[in-house]
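Training component of the fellowship. As part of building independent skills, the fellow (R.M.) carried out the full modelling exercise for a liganded target. The chosen ligand was NAP. The inputs are recorded below so that the supervisory panel can assess the work.
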Amino acid sequence: MKNKIALVTGGTSGIGLEIAKQLLATGAKIVVNYAHNEKQADIARTELGDCMFVCADISDESAVKNMFNQIKQKYGKLDYLVNNAGTNTDAFIRDFEAAEFQRVVNVNLVGKFLCTKYAIPLLSNGASIVNISSNLGVRPCAESSAYNAAAAGIINFTKSTTLELAGTGIRVNTVSPGFTPTPLSLSGWTTSEIEQKKLSNPMRRNATTTDIANTVLFLLSDKAAFINGQNILVNGGSVMN
Ligand SMILES: NC(=O)c1ccc[n+]([C@@H]2O[C@H](COP(=O)([O-])OP(=O)(O)OC[C@H]3O[C@@H](n4cnc5c(N)ncnc54)[C@H](OP(=O)(O)O)[C@@H]3O)[C@@H](O)[C@H]2O)c1
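Fellow's submitted model of the complex:
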């Protein structure tokens, strides 16, 4: 992946940060996106060194357009797009504020559409997109309907993108992680729920960010040259949400 140009949205924390680290280790040049947390971005800057960082809310079309203009100006092209940035709000449907539901769907699903839309002109034969969805996209849990619906939508959006990019040599796949301890996931589950997830998993552990990043890098690489439109569940074989 030497000298390939990669954009990792939400690359300053958790799964995205690990993907960025692994890409960097292969010799790729990476663009790291985030939207809110400057303190966490500074930590990522220290860990990743001299990369291009772009603060842009992926649910804001003009911010996304501006981010891709910056990438075009600096590199002129893009080889890998990792649509990773995501958010969540825990609420039961009866209590869910419509605006909050829309915010989650806008970041998690519409954000991937916007980044894909503005990436396409920079991508060419051999390029690869990985969309990060979730186990919850196929096995939903209660109190997380916006996140679950967006996750299911991402899996279908990947397949739609694959069809529209037919004949271009650009591949698109989804990676759906099971529970992976990160700032996002740790805020949504109690310690005993997390322990229960471990015990019920056939591998008797939860995923690590390394497990997820390994799969993403494989799908981006030419080793996955005939894998297209797929959803890879990286969940240890769990049949639970
Ligand atoms: N951890 C899990 O168990 C798990 C399981 C299944 C799927 N996933 C998915 O994996 C992805 C990464 O999650 P994570 O657990 O690594 O979360 P995380 O540690 O909280 O990282 C989320 C990243 O997304 C960025 N982000 C959030 N909103 C954004 C926005 N509107 N525009 C641009 N960047 C934004 C954050 O930066 P700022 O805060 O600075 O905006 C941060 O860099 C998400 O799509 C999530 O749904 C996670």
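The panel noted the following from the submitted structure. The helical segments are 14-25, 38-48, 61-75, 98-119, 145-164, 183-186, 191-200, 209-220. The pocket of NAP is lined by residues 9-10, 12-16, 33-37, 40, 57-59, 84-87, 107, 132, 134, 177, 179-180, 182-185 (CB under 6 Å).
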